[in-house]
Amino acid sequence: MASTTLSWEQTLFQLADQALTNHTPIAPVKVENAQLEAAYQHCTDITKQHSQTFYLASALLPYQQRKAVRALYAFCRISDDLVDCGGPNAHQDLAAWRQLALSPHPSPQDFVALAWADTRARYNIPRHYAEQLLDGVTQDLNFHRYQTFSDLAQYCYAVASTVGLMSMHIVGFSGPEAIPYAIKLGVALQLTNILRDIQEDWHNGRFYLPLDELAAFNLTIDDIANRNQDQRWHHFMQFQIERTRRLYRESFPGIDMLNPQGRFAISAAAELYRAILDDIEEHQYDVFSRRAHTTRLEKVSLLPGIWWRSHAGYPTP
Questions:
Q1: What is the pTM of this model?
Q2: Which is nearest to 146 in space by CA: 182, 184, 191?
Q3: CA-CA distances (angstroms) from residue 193 to 27, 137, 198, 208?
Q4: How confident is the model at residue 25 (pLDDT cuts 50, 70, 90)?
Q5: What is the C-alpha to C-alpha distance for residues 140 and 134, in angstroms, rounded to an integer?
Q6: Distance between CA atoms of 154 and 302, rounded to whole angstroms?
Q7: What is the DSSP letter of 173?
Q8: CA-based diameter of the chain, in Å?
């Protein structure tokens, strides 16, 4: 993998390495078991409400790990919502949440922070990964467009690859050699998210895809505003989807570096999300009048094949 490493990839690998080298474990939280279980249940409820795909994939994990990844999801969900749904005090609210979410001993009444602190302590999750994620979501409060893919990749690392890296600590992994694969998977997942949500993001004043690539296909921001879907748009989206699929393919061999009990769940999360790209294609790249998705039946139908690949191993691209 190192022989084909691109400059943007190397930048992201260095960010992950910084998080590991600056890590200091935290002590376990000290609260009554009933309070802790209530906190974890609250995180489960948040996960079920906001992401059927993540909820389904996390259900494939053993009980303790399932609770932990849902606490991670709830931490990420609140962080995102403070940006996406925040009002005039969003900066202050996010700063207050940052202090609470990174506290090793939050109040027992702060359910998400409590479950998240317990998860970080139990699974020795580097604090700096969480800091990098919060830095990433903060960028959306001072949004600027991304000129190149390298710029966008750093944002994708902050808001998505960090989630994969933290998840690896929960499910267990073989060693540092797994990190580049988790980073690529995170970038692929976030790119999928970006391609699905182009219209919603535009409505919120955001456009994430690289401006130099938009120009390379003779498209402009005005074309996005006018929801133009001619051949230029089709070719642009084909390029974006193919790169995203390639990142998925390049990340999948890292599944074999996870502890066996976590492989099916991570494979499911990745492959079910990748299926959104198929839906975008099937609807002629129309991401303006509909939100690409897969139905619950479609998700369930994909699980047997995902289970087999997660056990048999993914081919090296």
A1: 0.94
A2: 191
A3: 35, 14, 9, 10
A4: confident
A5: 10
A6: 31
A7: B
A8: 61
- What's the confidence (pLDDT) of residue 4? 61
Please give the structure tokens belonging to residue 276.
């959104």
In this prediction, residue 85 carries a pLDDT of 78
Residues 115 and 36: beta-carbon distance below 8 Å:
yes
Coil, strand or helix at 220: coil
The full DSSP string for 17-43 is: HHHHHT----PPP---HHHHHHHHHHH
**Which residues are CB-contacts of 72 (< 8 A; sequence separation ≥ 6)?**
116, 119, 163, 166, 167, 170
Residue 188 clears pLDDT 60, i.e. is over it: yes
- Cβ–Cβ < 8 Å for 296, 207: no
CA distance 16 to 9: 11
Whole-number Å distance between alpha carbons of 73 and 112: 10
- Contacts of residue 257, defined as CB under 8 A and 6 or more positions apart, other chains included, come to 173, 174, 175, 177, 178, 181
CB 279 within 8 A of CB 291: no
Cα(72)–Cα(55) distance, rounded to whole angstroms? 12
Tokens of 224: 């996005």
219 residue type, one letter: L
- What are 140-179's pLDDT values in tens digits? 888 779 999 999 999 999 999 999 999 999 999 999 999 9
Residue position matching structure tokens 């919502």: 81
Say which amino acid occupies 93. Answer: D
DSSP string, 208-277: -S-HHHHHHTT--HHHHHTT--SHHHHHHHHHHHHHHHHHHHHHGGGGGGB-HHHHHHHHHHHHHHHHHH
Quickly state the pLDDT bin for 2 (edges 50, 70, 90): very low
